[in-house]
Amino acid sequence: MTIHGLIYPTLVPDNWPFGLEWLPQPAYIVGGAVRDALLGRTREYLDLDFIIPSGAVAVAQAIARHYQAGFVLLDPQRQIARVVFPQATVDFAQQEGDSLETDLHRRDFTINAIAYNPHTAEIIDPLQGRTDLKQGILRMVSAANLKDDPLRLMRAYRQAAQLDFTIEPTTQATIQTLASYITEVAAERVRVEINYLLANPQGTFWLRKAAENNLLAPFFPNATLESWEKLAKVEIVAALIAQNSPHFSRELQKSVRDTVKTTWLGIAKLACLVHPHTELAEIELQKLTYSRAEIKAVTTALQLFPQLKSAHKSVREQYFFFQEAGNVFAATIILALVDNNLVSAMPGDQSLRVYAPLISRYLNPDDLVAHPTKIISGDELIIALNISPSPKLGELLTEIAVAQAEGKISTPEEAIALAQSLLVD
Ligand SMILES: Nc1ccn([C@@H]2O[C@H](COP(=O)(O)OP(=O)(O)OP(=O)(O)O)[C@@H](O)[C@H]2O)c(=O)n1
């Protein structure tokens, strides 16, 4: 299907997991799907938002039942329901106000206020969103709309980063005026926007703009000019690593946990913005509803990176460093590179060479300094030495692991002999 000679696959009913005949007339696709289709942006996952003048929940229910898809009633009052297919999520919402135009006028930005009627292939664009799309501009529909849902203040920066757009000057000035309203929004919603900005290389620029427009002060009260400079350096370091060590770069892109989207690079960025004292950093991150795993990662990186000021460490020191850092290692290295000013001091990959030995150890699963394997268990040692469990046992096991890392021992017999000699001492 073409509109004005262009093809917009996501708007074509043939590409949907349900038939057009299930939609009443009229029905409109709105928001991101229309915007992205007009921009020619492809999405990995189909995410459609329909508005329907009345009976939206009943339509969703009928489609879910027929196609045996998941059904979620999102908002019974405002009549919003979601149908979840394996390859798509489709929301159905009752039109807000008594006409489509009124509904579109209640939205955040002009580029998100374009509707498409799949029955007639007609585009409805009362706010000239397409002109702004062509020019790459985010323009508010009105100041009142931004105030109505102050998350929209943050959405402007997130979408600017996502689409590589600019924010129109009056809109930006209005956001600055309304900035204090951001505290009315549930912190979790703000965190989602911040996380997107942390995950996107363009996001660093826009996060800083958001801070300049006073939007981030309630969340990162201690972020200074220096914090923003550090954040910019994280991006430079990440680019250097991508060029010089794709393997380490992939580590940085891994999530903290399966259930937590923030990457290790994101943790390093957060660590630049929070208070340098870990107790205060923890409070800031808790307020933003970060998970325990994310908070622990940030505070561990903050605590450990000063140890890397001197890159030359004995194997014993390295062993304890890896033990403390665990999988926060990658974020800690980034902070050390940024803080030691190695990035600007040395050109190209020189800066990375300082930590190359540590990074290689971390990347090598067989390295006994970074990834020790137990040659003897606590129980085995108790029997062999005829001792009872005590803190001393833990100390012996640690010394065995260090000796193994140093290449001094490699068998259980040698481990027992070492423990025996230590007990005698
Ligand atoms: N706080 C919000 C959230 C959403 N919307 C409107 O609802 C649409 C759908 O919202 P959502 O799916 O959250 O965002 P998208 O704009 O679709 O963008 P993306 O999917 O990239 O997040 C938006 O385009 C916009 O028209 C809004 O006006 N104000």
What does this structure look like?
It is built from 22 helices and 13 strands. It has 425 residues and is an alpha+beta fold. The chain has a five-stranded mixed sheet. It is elongated, with a radius of gyration of 28 Å. The relative contact order is 0.06. The structure holds cytidine-5'-triphosphate. Cytidine-5'-triphosphate is lined by residues 30-32, 47, 49, 107-108, 112-113, 149, 151-152, 155.
Biggest sheet overview: 5 strands, mixed
> End-to-end distance, in Å?
83 Å
User: How big is the Rg?
Assistant: 28 Å
Strand sequence of the main sheet, in spatial order? 3-4-7-6-5
Number of strands: 13
Q: For this entry, what is the oligomeric state of its chains?
A: single chain
**Low-pLDDT residue spans:** none
Bound molecules: cytidine-5'-triphosphate
SS summary, helix count: 22
How much β-strand is present in the residues?
Answer: 5-15%
Globally, the shape reads elongated
Helix/strand/pairing class, anyone?
alpha+beta
Helix content: 40-55%
Average pLDDT confidence is: 92
Labels describing this entry:
425 residues, alpha+beta, 5-stranded mixed sheet, two-stranded antiparallel sheet, 22 helices, elongated, binds cytidine-5'-triphosphate
